[in-house]
Write a structure and sequence with these properties.
By secondary structure, this protein is mostly helical. The protein contains 10 helices and 3 strands, in the order αββααβααααααα. A 3-stranded antiparallel sheet has the order 1-2-3. Strand 1 (31-36) and strand 2 (40-47) form a beta hairpin. Helix 1 (2-24) packs parallel to helix 3. The N and C termini lie far apart (87 Å).
């Protein structure tokens, strides 16, 4: 993964710089050339404590803390998606932590009195314009910058308005928009008024009437029968909307009633109405 490659590059740069300082500045506390005159110079310090001398001499505890922190950072980078800037920040912190951990384990400088200084981290950068600022190394730089980057990224994700995330995702064209009108009815998004469903039903009923076997007889089948035959096109459409014309029962009832008549006999409209008791309901 690229994040671990970035961390490995930080460790490599840190160890190369420390090796160079140990090689060229053989005495602890001695100064080397200015990197940026008036800004940053080289001074070798072997620090067996934390920053600002905190926990001085407790290198085993500091090494254990750095080891645990490295494992936690690796697990976070493997299991969670922190976004580009979040991942970049954590990778920088991981690289700096491992760089200093290598010193805690392998660096064995000899102090001025001839004793071995176990667990010391080699620092070398001195800020010329700020005498009280602690001397630091490349690993410290990336730990600080990585932590600040991740913190800013985390704060931004926490405080930014939630509407910014969802406004673009929820934005949809209106039913009257040209882009939506150009789409086929079946491809349009459905809404609560089922306008597009009505159009879809009408189109499918017309198509079914023209293409079904009933069309050869010149008689259109009931609407619910058509929808039943073409249920694969509009599954469960009757349960989603009330737009299906309620004429199927009327057609079936008339078919049942008229089936008892002698279709060969001549009936006029008055006789039919009187026979079925409808003369009072119709104004002839």
């Amino acid at each position: 993964m690229l994040c671990f490659l970035f961390s490995a590059i930080i460790v490599l740069l840190d160890q190369i710089m420390k090796w160079y300082v140990r090689l060229t500045i053989t005495v602890e506390g001695a100064s080397g050339p200015d990197i940026f005159p008036g800004l940053i110079s080289l001074t070798r310090i072997e620090n067996n404590g934390a920053m600002l001398g905190f926990l001085s001499g407790q290198w085993i505890l500091l090494a254990a803390i750095a080891f645990i922190a490295s494992i936690v950072l690796v697990m976070i980078l493997l299991r969670y998606n922190e976004g580009f800037w979040g991942t970049l920040g954590l990778s920088a912190v991981l690289g700096g932590t491992v760089g200093n951990l290598c010193d805690r384990i392998f660096n064995r400088p000899v102090s001025a009195n001839g004793t071995i200084k176990y667990g010391a981290v080699t620092d070398m950068f001195r800020t010329e314009f700020w005498d009280s600022f602690p001397i630091y190394n490349i690993a410290d730089i990336f730990i600080t910058l990585g932590f600040v980057t991740f913190l800013i990224h985390f704060v931004y994700l926490t405080i930014k308005p939630q509407g910014l995330e969802t406004s673009a995702a929820n934005a949809a064209p209106s039913a009257d928009s040209p882009a939506l009108a150009a789409q086929p009815a079946a491809a349009r998004p459905q809404n609560d008024n089922f306008t597009d469903v009505e159009a879809l039903i009408a189109a499918q009923v017309a198509q079914a009437t023209e293409t079904s076997s009933y069309a050869a007889d010149g008689v259109a089948p009931p609407v619910d029968q058509i929808l039943g035959e073409y249920s694969s096109i509009t599954p469960d459409i009757s349960s989603q909307t009330d737009t299906t014309p309620d004429i199927s029962f009327t057609l079936e009832a008339l078919e049942a009633e008229l089936g008892s008549l002698d279709v060969g006999a001549d009936y006029d409209i008055d006789e039919l109405l009187r026979e079925y008791g409808l003369e009072d309901d119709v104004n002839l």
